[in-house]
Amino acid sequence: MEVVFGSVFPAGAYLVGDVEPVQDYKQEKRPDGSRPQQVDPDTGELIWTVPVLDADPEARKNEKTINVKISARQQPVPPANPDGLPFIPVEFEGLTLTPWVDDNGQFPRLAWSYRAKGMTAPGKSSKGSAAGRSESAAA
């Protein structure tokens, strides 16, 4: 289910790394030792990942940096970095959250998988993200 960006990142989000292909570990390695890139089974598009800092001061330490996966035919290009900030402000279009159980630690916990259809500079979203900041998402 698609959610409003501002309800997931009320204080904003920042790119803290490069957009990279998601490797498909279900397929065998290529002759050169590399792995093929994952493909979205619903759209047939390639899957990319980008590390994002949640600017919410109340976010827990282990939830400050998350990875957002983006399905796209070509590698997504981050928005321009205004004023030479150390991190790039970003908004995600078509943002969806999928719950899953992380049972790798001592106690299982609910975790979220973040997916998007694209990314843009804050305020440039085609869906009027400023209005969405005051809305709440049913997640």
TrEMBL record:
Record's compositionally biased regions (Low complexity): 123-139
Domain of life of the native organism: Bacteria
Feature: compositional bias, Basic and acidic residues: 24-33
UniProt region (Disordered), positions on chain: 24-44, 118-139
Protein name: Plasmid replication, integration and excision activator
